[in-house]
């Protein structure tokens, strides 16, 4: 029942997005004002459309970082905000440019080798950081600079291709440039914040050093957008800043264990977002402030139709969720009760309804910009 409910919520959201945001100058014309030729997305788990939906993860109904659902034909429901945007913009459903895992589990679970799919332009990957290649879940566990000091998993082996490499991979596959007619979505930096938070909480760096690391990451991402995306022909670039991690279950748990952690997390995210904002001045960039909206959702949930902004919809107990992650969460292992309007699937990832809220806000900002 919950799985069907999610599918209905998603279908309704697509209908609202498509009907409510179209341009064209007449009530009957719901086509976007800009006729995009394709959709490209870069980033991390918040935009991942199935990089790790392989082996038992895929066959168990997982693969996206939310409450995974399926359509009547068995295909994954469009639960990620980039999938909802594709429907709104009359684009083909996004597919992951790269799939697979490279940890020890890849052998035990008969997971296929890492594969690249020509024509797929969903480059975002769970665990990806802005520049550093070994993000959360990566098999290369170890201290900086040659491994991930926290959240590494030699068993799972997430690919965590960083955003800078994702962009380069797209350029390599498309003659070194963007056409100028595609819409480019980019949302990254969350894993940089999580890694630096846990490194700080573990005593590996000071709070000031953590904030400085995020300042650098924000500067780097703005630079990549300017020199690798805009300079190579992209004209419609939608950049989402980092949501307010301090108010997520991750932030709440960090604060409970280490009083004062929430303020450090907020400072890190603010430093990153400020550098991103300052570095992107082109009229071809739309910066979407999901950070402010995410804070507002937690402070005033009923205004957004949210019924819970503190608990996780997924049951993360290892007995029912071996990864303790929304990556393998579905109707089979959610908590009891109606979670259709919960904000969070796990400690940091939104539910399908949370993704709907992101897509709605992105759509509204694109409409104001005149792109939708």
Automatic annotation (TrEMBL):
**Molecular function via GO:** hydrolase activity, acting on ester bonds
Q: Does the keyword Signal apply?
A: yes
User: A Pfam family matched by this chain, by name?
Assistant: Lipase_GDSL
* SUPFAM superfamilies membership: SGNH hydrolase
Under the heading InterPro entries, the entry gives: GDSL, GDSL_Est/Lipase, SGNH_hydro_sf
Which Gene3D superfamilies did the record assign?
SGNH hydrolase
Q: Which residues form the signal peptide?
A: 1-27
User: Superkingdom, according to UniProt?
Assistant: Bacteria
Calcium among keywords:
no
Sorted UniProt keywords:
Hydrolase, Signal
Q: Which PANTHER family match?
A: GDSL LIPASE/ACYLHYDROLASE FAMILY PROTEIN (AFU_ORTHOLOGUE AFUA_4G14700), GDSL LIPASE_ACYLHYDROLASE FAMILY PROTEIN (AFU_ORTHOLOGUE AFUA_4G14700)
Q: Know the name of this protein?
A: GDSL-like Lipase/Acylhydrolase
